[in-house]
Design brief:
Elements (H helix, E strand, L loop, with lengths): L8 E4 L6 E2 L1 H11 L10 H5 L6 H9 L3 H16 L7 E2 L3 H10 L3 E9 H10 L8 E5 L8 H11 L8 E5 L2 H9 L3 E5 L6 H6 L4 E3 L2 H7 L2
Parallel strand pairs: 1-4, 1-6, 4-5, 6-7, 7-8
Antiparallel strand pairs: 2-3
Helix pairs in contact: 1-4, 3-4, 5-10, 7-8
């Protein structure tokens, strides 16, 4: 039986877990693909870009190679960094949850595939940065290719704690798979962009539907 109250480090994904980032990410994506033959995407396709590394999403949806995908990432960042990143909102109950966990002595951390500098700006914009021991993400060159790499980088910066002391919270299979590869307990949230079935089939140890249910796991 996994006892979450024994954990010391709680790692959170950002997009789809702390913030509803759909408008920020999709408008930046659509800006980047202007001029391509394909500029129309289904709602499911647009939702699918939230979670995995952005470069991979360009390659998958447009069929471009790695070099061209990297050029699209740079175009995406033009719009996103100019202010598009703030076109999002914090999910209901998240700030109260972060405050509660911090006050209980947990080390609250962000582990996101978003570039670290962007994550820091977004969380600072919403006044959430004060709750985190560490905000860790990808670098500007997308060198941390998957969520396992991001989590490993995050743990290294925390001083390499035992994985038994760590839990990962996220909304997509990438969060669950990255955590389970490292032997870390994984909590899936359904209010983001991944379904219950996606999270369950990817190894989630717990699945919750809102911030209040997540808080209850740590009571």
């Amino acid at each position: 039986m996994i006892k979450l109250t024994d954990k010391k480090y709680i790692l959170f994904d950002l997009d789809g877990t702390l913030t509803d980032s759909y408008p920020a990410i999709t408008t930046s994506f659509l800006y980047a693909v202007q001029g391509y033959d394909r500029t129309s995407f289904t709602a499911d396709e647009l939702s699918s870009i939230i979670g995995p590394p952005l470069k991979d999403s360009f390659m998958r949806l447009l069929g471009v190679d790695g070099f061209e995908a990297w050029e699209l990432v740079k175009k995406y960042r033009e719009y996103y960094n100019a202010g598009g990143m703030y076109n999002c909102k914090v999910y209901e109950g998240i700030e109260a949850l972060l405050k509660y966990l911090s006050n209980r002595g947990y080390k609250v951390v962000v582990a996101t595939s978003k570039p670290e500098v962007q994550a820091i700006k977004v969380l600072s914009h919403f006044g959430l940065d004060k709750y985190f021991t560490l905000i860790a993400g990808d670098d500007e060159n997308c060198s941390r290719a998957n969520k396992k790499d991001v989590i490993t980088y995050c743990l290294n910066r925390l001083g390499s704690p035992s994985v038994q002391e760590v839990v990962m919270v996220g909304d997509r299979k990438y969060d669950m798979l990255g955590a389970k590869e490292l032997g870390i307990t994984a909590i899936g949230v359904t209010y983001g962009y991944g379904s219950h079935s996606e999270l369950s089939s990817s190894g989630a140890d717990f699945i919750v539907n809102n911030a209040n249910e997540l808080k209850e796991l740590f009571l």
